[in-house]
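Rotation project, supervised by the postdoc (A.L.). Task for the rotation student: set up a whole-complex structure prediction and record inputs and outputs verbatim in this book. Inputs entered:
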Amino acid sequence: MLRTHTCGELNISNLGETVTLTGWVQKSRDLGGTTFVDIRDRYGLTQLVFNTDTDAALREQGRGLGREFVIKVTGKVLERSNKNTKIPTGEIEIAVEGIEILNEAKIPPFLIEDDTDGGEELRAKYRYLDLRRAPIRNNLILRHKMAQEVRRYLSDLDFIEVETPVLIKSTPEGARDFVVPSRMNPGEFYALPQSPQTFKQLLMVSGFDRYFQIVKCFRDEDLRADRQPEFTQIDCELSFVTQEDILNIFEGLTRHLFNKVKGIELNEFPRMYYADAMRLYGSDKPDRRFGMEFVEMNDLVKGKDFSVFDNAELVVGINAKGAAGYTRKQLDELTEWLKRPQIGATGLIYMRYNTDGTLKSSVDKFFNEDDLTNWAAAFGAEQGDLILILAGNTDKVRKQMNELRLEMGTRLGLRDKNTFAPLWVIDFPLLEFDEESGRYHAMHHPFTSPKPEDIALLDTNPGEVRANAYDLVINGTEIGGGSIRIHNKDLQGLMFKHLGFSKEEAQKQFGFLMDAFEYGAPPHGGIAFGFDRLASIFAGLDSIRDVIAFPKNNSGRDVMIDSPSTIADAQMTELKIKTTV
Amino acid sequence: MLRTHTCGELNISNLGETVTLTGWVQKSRDLGGTTFVDIRDRYGLTQLVFNTDTDAALREQGRGLGREFVIKVTGKVLERSNKNTKIPTGEIEIAVEGIEILNEAKIPPFLIEDDTDGGEELRAKYRYLDLRRAPIRNNLILRHKMAQEVRRYLSDLDFIEVETPVLIKSTPEGARDFVVPSRMNPGEFYALPQSPQTFKQLLMVSGFDRYFQIVKCFRDEDLRADRQPEFTQIDCELSFVTQEDILNIFEGLTRHLFNKVKGIELNEFPRMYYADAMRLYGSDKPDRRFGMEFVEMNDLVKGKDFSVFDNAELVVGINAKGAAGYTRKQLDELTEWLKRPQIGATGLIYMRYNTDGTLKSSVDKFFNEDDLTNWAAAFGAEQGDLILILAGNTDKVRKQMNELRLEMGTRLGLRDKNTFAPLWVIDFPLLEFDEESGRYHAMHHPFTSPKPEDIALLDTNPGEVRANAYDLVINGTEIGGGSIRIHNKDLQGLMFKHLGFSKEEAQKQFGFLMDAFEYGAPPHGGIAFGFDRLASIFAGLDSIRDVIAFPKNNSGRDVMIDSPSTIADAQMTELKIKTTV
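Outputs recorded:
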């Protein structure tokens, strides 16, 4: 190595040693007759010193070092007079005896510091410089540690990591595929996998028993903060298991990661039925860092001539504890916030439980003090609380109230990034009706098994059929989901039929899997974790961008390498394709 | 779990326990009044027994179990009277008390045994059944162990695994890219990476210091046994290192893998200059499990009026030890073998050193006994040896002699799959002249640095410039290669110029990298291992196919899932492309 030590390892035990360090110039400053230069690498920061004892030319060279110059320095480890207890190398400094400039650097377009002055676009263009900043670099180191621990944990449980193909076959279910024209098979295309779902199931048919893979997956969907066209899954499948086994093993994995990577010991994960999650939180991924559960008020409010309530399918409220001090202006502003098209709630009704014990609602015209007292009791409200109420169509109003609950949680400081509230949501519906296409879609995917006792409902009431499906939710984010799969050809065929596939379509797309089920397919099930999301939660980030080394922007572009880009006509000719732009 | 134990773990210590096993019916047989059924899973094989003590109906059910049925059985662990010492469970059997058929199985299209009767195509179509066979499954388990050990070894050395993007930018250098049309950026394409080369270099610019990744790469090239359109690399890069550091670290990794995964302790790897490898073996990846080095004979053979030798640029021979007994017919057959178009050698000359001490050549007309004695001395030949000689253009004759040497090594049994002969080949040429395009190409890739002392030759004699490049060869297969990279913008620009790039082209394709070099790029270098090849060598296979779970055939097709395939017109419309087939 060009160095004897990294910039993070020298301390008082090295006093007097002659060492060679390599790294980047973080900053330099002159204090009286002394020049200090901080040299940085991935491992830390070390202070170099050039003082009156230093050769004059060398000191001049030290003063001339620009920010981000790459240097190699040799010198002696001295004890600092002015110690910095915040960093491991803070007790020592290096009295420089020689410098070699390994590479110069132009002035970077933004500050390479924990807090930078660079805007998002500039930092994206110079991602390689943004990655020099400790907060971003540490996210990737954290991610690495997580991946290592995932592999260790699963390997110790006899899971085998098997690489499944990236060039596969396009299927009509699910999101849009990215496709790859085949030169050797003109007119035909590969697709990039949205998940290795069918392959991992085939591995179970092959008897692999326990499979996992940390694997890139691809979806050609419109993008937002927590979506990227390519993303990474921790993909797992097991044979001869029940849902209970899977929940236990992967709860174990999650707790192991929190323990090993973050030093946090989590309690047993609570479990909640999907139906209860929708009723109490209006969401299949409730943020359980705080309570503020929904209270359904139909029985309390109907028949009092208030048409908004009387005409509503559902009247539902939450108790924002301690928020009775909200002013009229604040409540108006909240009402406006709810009206935004993303939420679309038309009217917010509230009741203050004032600190003097009085109750005051925005619908006092229709409800008397007894009514309001009953409301307060239903919410377990105390003096100082604020009840917020929405009314309307059940599905819509639950969604709106979910948004309001999360917003109030944020405003009341109940969503601390260092608190982790995991939750298993179980018993998802098998199917959901899609208004646009007028047919049922698989809520998870077409390979999810229905609960045996609900199979009969498939013909009569498909929307009521529950699946052997489960999601792992942390802090309101779905970080994993899976199911016990269908392993029987007839049941799989029935499922495709209910999803609107003709027999021929099903055979053409998934014939290989249904055929495989006829040659001795074991009962099996699995789960996939969104690794980017899990890492972002561990890193305390809202977006997955900064746990990805080279992410794409909202247009799917990598602005650093300027991709996608046009390709040569010769390439297209060879692939026998043309663009029609 | 549906089972209490796997099929590989019960032994004499479990006698008397009531256990539940799940797995596949391997085979069943009736012996007198007793029915034996072998049940198999990934972990092993256990014998089930139904005898006269067994309930008659249950025994009937046992006799009715077909091959590959998936079953769950409960029973008691008994000591076998007839023990099988070859398997860990061979001392016990299970007296069955209950069977549940979890899934039936049609008769498989080929035998699910170590030696199968299925042809290659049939097995490819039913890959999920072929994967049930222990030899194939064990390859993938071996591969998993190797990957785990790679990660452990490198992580312990402070390497960080960073995922680089799969959707990148098409570049004109190297092999053909697979491309992916971008829906959000119509008319533009992503490319799939042939390697993460530029990204890993950018990570060095970012200060990651030590990076690795086990990563899928893609090349749209015509296929053969050891090539797949998607393949896996162990990709590594380090900063502030010399070539010596890299050779040491990755020799350490390779030895670690051999030790941990195969229990083999390898000696220090020898090193050889590229020029010597070409001179002594006619190949940059010599198989060093055996000697049979080339002996150049120009000084010995010229000027004796044998025009074939006199007109040849190079006359070169090998000593096939102990092969003097080769008959005229065998030698004629070898001459024919050499004439095949893949090799294209026109004439084989030989000299036998007979066991009676006489020397006899196929060119006795031109060379007397003294000449032949000199030849024998040059080859260190002994009684019983056979000298084989080719003559012609240096490059061609070396290639031909390389083929002949390997063939003779095989025929003489010198290429044992359980012997491992690693070799570092160093000091590769930087450039090689390509007759077709009439210009120099990068022998490794355009980011490889020239030896500083050879830079001046770039203008005068580019073919003589040596690179800081190295390959790791095992048993004649290149399993890894890398270089110390260029980290200076001007030198990188010069390199692109010599590769025939205009300034504009270089900027358009690789501007982001050259820009990065201006912001403080550290000296760096790296290596990439072909993980499929390494795994195939560990598994003792000639092809990489069976260390890949779902490989493609020579037309790039996955015949199991029938991919690539046509896609819907609507998909193409959305992507704004058309096929021109």
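Student's summary: Chain B has three domains: 12-103, 142-166+194-271+423-539, 290-415.
Supervisor addendum: Residues 134-156 of chain B form the longest helix (23 residues).
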